[in-house]
Amino acid sequence: MAETTAPAADISIRELRTVDAVFAASRVLSEVWGGDGSGMPPNLLRALAHSGNYTVGVYDGDRMIGASAAFFAEPGARSMHSHITGILPVYRGHGIGHTLKRHQREWALSHGVERITWTFDPLVARNAHFNLRALGAHVVEYLVDHYGAMDDGVNRGDASDRLLVEWNLTRPSTAAPDDARVVASVAVPADIEAVRAQSAQDAAAWRVRVRDAFLARLAGGLVVGGFDDTRGYLFVAAR
């Protein structure tokens, strides 16, 4: 069947209530991550769903085109961690990710959760833009090689550095800092996937450059105040 170039009008988000649904979600996530069948196996999705965690599929009509899974954090924290979210590439850029995050937010609030955390690769500019600018999440920590070696089509051969971000669901999103507050920045490539496809060596150099700059600024008492598509991560003095 030929791929569609844009999503249909009847995008819906449904909880994974059946075995067939969790298998479909696992297949979709495997496709998003370049054929990694171990990334989110059906049995783990089934266990998370059955124990009351957030597990959903995103549908275009009857076709599942994305999935997301999150689990509750430590008792008493009123928090959950969004472990994985993926949408098939042909459906990106149509606002589905934002719709999914709004759904996750409403689900969390209905279950007494006030904040959501997740990780993302600091080199992926589009995710930094979405997480920090569109949603207003804030960076909590830089995690060096957080998951160790990963063998999926997206991460294979690269260190799994991640930024841990927190999204406070009860406070308004934080606006980007005024230029007067910005004391440093860390640039990232506009399209790290294109860099990786062209030169693994250049991509590895970006990884080290961003890691070293990030850690130096954090060690100097700065915090990430936002993200700019031209300058990259914007650092401000901690308040």
Write a short abstract of this structure.
The protein has 239 residues and is of the alpha+beta class.
Describe the structure.
With 239 residues, the protein is of the alpha+beta class. The protein has six helices and ten strands, in the order βααβββαβαβββααββ. Helix 1 packs across helix 2 and helix 5 packs across helix 6 (200-219). Mean pLDDT is 89; it is low at 1-6.
The structural class is alpha+beta
Q: How many angstroms separate the termini?
A: 54 Å
Question: How much is the radius of gyration in Å?
Answer: 18 Å
* Sheet with the most strands: spatial strand order: 1-2-3-4-5-7-6
The coarse overall form would be globular
Helix fraction, binned, reads 25-40%
Q: What is the helix tally?
A: 6
- pLDDT averaged residue by residue: 89
* Total count of strands: 10
What can be said about the biggest beta sheet? 7 strands, mixed
Order of helices and strands: EHHEEEHEHEEEHHEE
How much β-strand is present in the residues?
Answer: 25-35%
Extract low-pLDDT stretches.
Answer: 1-6
What are the SSEs and their pairings?
Blueprint: E1 11-15, H1 19-32, H2 42-50, E2 54-60, E3 63-72, E4 79-87, H3 96-110, E5 115-120, H4 125-134, E6 138-143, E7 162-168, E8 182-186, H5 192-198, H6 200-219, E9 222-228, E10 232-237
Parallel strand pairs: 4-5
Antiparallel strand pairs: 1-2, 2-3, 3-4, 5-7, 6-7, 8-10, 9-10
Features:
globular, about 30% helix, 6 helices, about 240 residues, alpha+beta, 3-stranded antiparallel β-sheet
